[in-house]
Amino acid sequence: MEIVILPDNQAIGSLGADAVEDLLRRKPDAVIGLATGSSPLAIYDELANRYSNDRLSFAKARGFTLDEYVGLPADHPESYRNVIDKDFVSRVDFAPGAVRGPDGLAQDIQAACAGYEEAIARAGGVDLQILGIGTDGHIGFNEPGSSLASRTRIKTLTRQTRIDNARFFGDVLDAVPTHCLTQGLATIMSARHVLLVATGAGKAEAVHHLVEGAVSAMWPGTILQHHPHVTVLLDGAAAGRLQLADYYRQTYLAKPAWQGI
Ligand code: F6R
Q: Residue 75: which domain range?
């Protein structure tokens, strides 16, 4: 796991966008895993800028989102499908239908989840997965206690996650759905490169467990310690509880530029 502690969100956006740009140069039809939420916004903004400046194109790329609320109407502004369209997909040149998400309105939830796994596999798997992490350590919506071997399925959101996300629902806790469909931890682990972003002191405890804690279903993101290629982009506040923060800073400063992330 490579830990990169950066001065601010802008630096995170720039380095994260570099990873996507490098990938698209090597592989224009790359498959990108897209997280919703606040954490990846700086990366999406920077990618949209680079697209506007003709530096990169998503015309041949494909995307898969991580998760979706169950039961939100298709036109609800907070459905993750609509959020990712607004925050990123509509700002670049993905082909129509090139970005898919789990179907939170499916009649047959199990078939929809199995179909989502098949679609990811048919696309050749995810090349680069952009991730955030919840204050309770979830990745995707794999809440504490999730099977470390899980695949896409329905999950119940914890009260903490619903409180955290109430800001998107007019601060009304009851308006936040109770269930979601999410890629499982094993699904996320199948991505070839995982780029996780965390900012702010509220994430410091989750980041502490993610990077330096024991692997445990109680802190689901810790499964990433078993992944061969994870890059964690942090600001100073999110890195605030890391025991080896100075070592991570020195290591990154001394890293040869050709290595990339
Ligand atoms: C979103 C997702 C979640 C978020 C996490 C952090 O698709 O899967 O795991 O990444 O809840 O959310 P933010 O970035 O809003 O703090």
A: 2-255
